[in-house]
């Protein structure tokens, strides 16, 4: 039986305060890895070996001016916590069968902060970028992905992919 999913709605929280209605879009971090190219005698191609993650950046687009978000975004030294709670519809050939929770937790610092364009009778046009040091994605109450830049931790499901490396480094 084929199951498909549709993102139906979401709410963004900043440091425990709902930003419902204040954020029109949140662009979650993209996972890009730096690589080392290995070309060996006898190989027929280049092997790219992942080394480390590039910056994890999250962008929020505001729908209107919000003082809590403006204050948090103005301080690049303070760490902020963002949580996205998305309702995802679960569909089978028989129709919609359930609503599921997709939750993403982000911790980081706001490093780009537009003050916006102010025009009469027009919506505020502002984007804010946060550099993330922690990302956790949870689907149906089960962890899918967890990244902590400072620990370092990289988990996929229940598997900690850096556990051995941390032990070897004495961390």
Task: Tell me what you see in this structure.
This protein is mostly beta strands and 171 residues long. Helices cover 8% and strands 57% of the residues. Strands 1, 2, 3, 6, 7, 8, 9, 10, 11 and 12 form a 10-stranded antiparallel beta sheet that branches. Strands 4-5 form a two-stranded antiparallel ribbon. It is globular, with a radius of gyration of 20 Å. The model has no long low-confidence stretch (mean pLDDT 93).
List keywords for this structure.
10-stranded antiparallel sheet, globular, two-stranded antiparallel sheet, single chain, 171 residues, mainly beta
In short:
This protein has helices at 67-74, 163-168; strands spanning 4-14, 17-18, 23-27, 33-38, 47-53, 56-62, 80-92, 95-113, 126-139, 142-148, 153-156, 159-160. By secondary structure, the chain is mainly beta. It is globular, with a radius of gyration of 20 Å.
What do the pLDDT scores average to? 93
Count of separate DSSP helical elements: 2
Which spans have pLDDT < 50 for at least 5 consecutive residues? Answer: none
What is the β-strand count? 12
Gap between N and C termini, in Å? Answer: 45 Å
How would a crystallographer describe the biggest sheet?
A: 10 strands, antiparallel
Order of helices and strands: EEEEEEHEEEEEEH
Tell me the strand percentage band: over 45%
Rg calc: 20 Å
- Helix proportion range: under 10%
Class by alpha and beta content: mainly beta
């Amino acid at each position: 039986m084929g199951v498909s999913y549709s993102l139906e709605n979401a709410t963004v929280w900043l440091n425990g305060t709902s930003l419902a209605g204040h954020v029109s879009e949140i662009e979650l971090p993209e996972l890009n890895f730096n690589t080392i190219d290995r070309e060996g005698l006898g190989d027929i191609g280049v092997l790219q070996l992942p080394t480390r993650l590039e910056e994890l950046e999250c962008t929020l687009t505001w729908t209107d001016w919000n003082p809590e978000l403006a204050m948090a975004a103005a301080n690049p030294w303070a760490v902020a916590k963002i949580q996205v709670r998305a309702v995802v519809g679960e569909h089978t050939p028989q129709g919609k069968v359930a609503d599921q929770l997709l939750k993403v937790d982000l911790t980081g610092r706001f490093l780009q902060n537009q003050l916006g364009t102010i025009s009469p009778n027009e919506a505020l046009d502002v984007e804010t970028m946060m550099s993330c040091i922690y990302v956790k994605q949870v689907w149906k109450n089960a962890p899918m992905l967890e990244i902590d830049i400072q620990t370092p931790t990289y988990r996929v499901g229940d598997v900690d992919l850096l556990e051995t490396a941390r032990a070897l480094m004495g961390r």
